[in-house]
Amino acid sequence: MKNTSLTHVGLAILRIVPSLLMIINHGLGKFNKLIAGGEIKFADPIGIGAAPSLFLAVIGEVVAPILIIIGLKTRWAAIPAAVTMAVAAFIQHHGDSIVTKEKSLLYLAFFIVIYILGPGKYSIDKN
After folding, report:
1. How many Å apart are CA 89 and CA 75, to the nearest integer?
2. Distance between terminal CA atoms of the chain?
3. pLDDT in tens, 80-95
4. Quick one: residue 40, left, alpha or beta (phi over 0 = left, psi -120 to 50 = alpha)?
5. pTM for this prediction
6. What is the C-alpha separation between 53 and 74, in angstroms, rounded?
7. What is the dihedral of CA 100, 105, 110, 115, to 10 degrees?
8. Is the pLDDT of residue 111 over 90?
């Protein structure tokens, strides 16, 4: 891949847009549920309990995307984000149609590509 400014702009867009959408459309609701206190009602797709599952989902859908947006430990942050989307697509929605799995699979692809390509120079990591 040619190391041009346009490539780095593309990498920044690839990092920022899906991560921001993940936080706004999926993560904030889970984060609010986590900090609200009280009884936690949340899916338990890997059998560790509702509260730990919610906590891990918040890491994958809020914390990791924030790190990806700013480009801090980007490749490491892409791992929990990708794992969260893999769990959503292949465990939580295993019996659902591809239409239901589509968003999870798209986010999974974004986070895998971010892991592979890295953050680019318009990031804290600058690589």
Report:
1. 21
2. 13
3. 999 999 999 999 999 9
4. beta
5. 0.92
6. 23
7. 150
8. yes
Is the pLDDT score of 1 beyond 60?
Answer: no
| Dist CA 23 CA 2 (whole Å) | 31
Mind spelling out the 3-state secondary structure of 54-95? HHHHHHHHHHHHHHHHHCCCHHHHHHHHHHHHHHHHHHHCCC
30: closest CA among 62, 2, 8, 1? Answer: 62
Give the rounded distance of the alpha carbon of 112 from its chain centre: 10
What is the residue extent of each domain of the chain?
5-117
Angle in degrees, CA 108, 95, 113, rounded to 5: 10
Amino acid letter at 13?
Answer: I
19 band by pLDDT with thresholds 50, 70 and 90? very high
Nearest CA-CA partner of 123 in 1, 29, 10, 23: 10
Could you tell me the CA-to-CA distances from 94 to 10, 40, 60, 110 in Å, in that order?
A: 32, 23, 19, 20
DSSP 116: H
